[in-house]
Amino acid sequence: EVVRALVAAGANCMRRTKQGDNVLHIAAARDRAGVITAVQDAAKSAFRDLVDEANWQGLTPLRIALCRGYT
Predict the structure, then answer these.
(1) Which of 12, 24, 42, 51 is deepest in the core (most CB within 10 A)?
(2) Which residues of 17-52 are buried (b: 16+ CB within 10 A; e: fewer)?
(3) Which pTM value belongs to this model?
C-alpha cells in the first residue's frame, strides 16, 4: 500500500541511487516481491524501463533476484 500511495502522490519511480540501482534493484536484492508487484501495478508505463535497466555492475533487477536465489 505504501508504494501505491507514494506513486499516486507523484513519487519518481525512475530515480536511481549513486550505484545506479532503481527501486526494482533494491526490492530484488531484498526479496520484496510485493514491492515489485506494487510498482508494476502503480507505475505501468515506467515498469518496462525499470526492469531493463542495469546498475553500475551491469546487473538488472531480474539478474540480482536470480543470483540471490529468489525465483
Answers:
(1) 24
(2) eeeebbbbbbbbbeebeebbebbbebbeebbeebbe
(3) 0.87
